[in-house]
Design a protein that fits this description.
Order of helices and strands: EHEEHEHHEEE
Shape: globular
Distance between the termini: 61 Å
Number of strands: 7
Largest sheet: 7 strands, mixed
Length: 197
């Protein structure tokens, strides 16, 4: 044992939740603050053009009415995403946001499913090949000298209970180990308060 030292001084955060739960907005707020603190820029991988709304001034928006300032790549391609993030200069970019990792996982599966015919399912022996580029991306994100936000969609988790399928929870719609990788994993939820008037 040796005395602990802050060698990995970058935060890695996972966020998942249903649509409209605030993942994109929250990650932009935090990413902007971290980038400003580090004197660097935000690199955003947008798989569904969800950032378009935030790249403009919205005077009616109570929090952060001015446009967010970030650099963006619009793609659902796992290969293009990996190339883009590995090509970042840590002297320029200090924060990476992947929105959404769910699309990256779907792209990894779709790359193999294109080889199937009829009602075939993916054989167990193929999963290592399917996961390899996805795992390369996640490993890079966890090890790079930048703060990272991995956003994902929410999926329902089912289990057979008494011979019936029952929903037993929710998780991030991604490869099974993805949720365990970040330092912090958050489930976002939109709560609307009503006043009794």
């Amino acid at each position: 044992f040796t005395k602990a030292e802050p060698r990995q001084a970058y935060v890695k955060i996972g966020m998942y939740g249903p649509p409209g739960s605030g993942k994109t907005f929250t990650s932009l707020l935090w990413a902007e603050g971290l980038a400003e603190y580090r004197g660097k820029r935000v690199a955003y991988i947008d798989t569904e053009r969800g950032t378009d709304f935030y790249a403009q001034d919205i005077p009616d928006r109570e929090i952060h009415p001015q446009a967010f300032d970030f650099d963006c790549v619009y793609t659902r391609s796992l290969a293009k995403t990996l190339e883009a993030v590995m090509g970042l200069d840590p002297e320029v970019h200090g924060v990476i946001v992947i929105d959404s990792i769910s699309h990256m996982w779907e792209a990894a599966i779709a790359a193999y499913e294109g080889k199937l015919t009829g009602a075939e399912t993916i054989p167990m022996s193929a999963w290592g090949t399917i996961k390899r580029p996805y795992k390369a991306l996640v490993n890079f994100l966890m090890e790079c000298p930048m703060d990272v936000f991995i956003l994902g969609r929410q999926k329902n988790v089912f289990k057979t209970v008494g011979g019936k399928m029952e929903q037993v929870g929710v998780s991030m719609k991604a490869e099974g180990d993805t949720q365990s990788e970040p330092h912090i994993q958050l489930r976002m939820e939109c709560l609307v308060s009503r006043s009794d008037t």
